[in-house]
Amino acid sequence: MSRATPKVVVPHSTAWVAQTWLSFVLSVGVTAVGIWNLPVDVWVKSFLGMGLLFTVGSTFSLSKTVRDQHEMEQLGTRIDEARVARLLSEHDPVAPPKL
């Protein structure tokens, strides 16, 4: 029976975290400024602004859901491996079969 190699979790660098937050803030900010400066009525700007807010909110929800599903798959795999390891450790190949 082989031992499972432990997974190494490497945290994100500070530069990567700063870049992702900066790109998020810039993209939402520039889009909001663009909507604000459109030469259309206020109700059209409001509609586009609400669309932007709903898009950002649903993006956060989707990314959290995908992350949670990935973590559950990893947890399920570890639980299955532990069950198989326990069954193998309890198995006695010399013992007569149980009826």
TrEMBL record:
<dbReference type="GO" id="GO:0006974">
    <property type="term" value="P:DNA damage response"/>
</dbReference>
<feature type="transmembrane region" description="Helical">
    <location>
        <begin position="16"/>
        <end position="36"/>
    </location>
</feature>
<feature type="domain" description="YiaAB two helix">
    <location>
        <begin position="16"/>
        <end position="68"/>
    </location>
</feature>
<dbReference type="InterPro" id="IPR008024">
    <property type="entry name" value="YiaAB"/>
</dbReference>
<keyword id="KW-0472">Membrane</keyword>
<feature type="transmembrane region" description="Helical">
    <location>
        <begin position="42"/>
        <end position="62"/>
    </location>
</feature>
<dbReference type="InterPro" id="IPR038972">
    <property type="entry name" value="YiaA-like"/>
</dbReference>
<dbReference type="Pfam" id="PF05360">
    <property type="entry name" value="YiaAB"/>
</dbReference>
<protein>
    <recommendedName>
        <fullName>YiaAB two helix domain-containing protein</fullName>
    </recommendedName>
</protein>
<keyword id="KW-0812">Transmembrane</keyword>
<dbReference type="GO" id="GO:0005886">
    <property type="term" value="C:plasma membrane"/>
</dbReference>
<keyword id="KW-1133">Transmembrane helix</keyword>
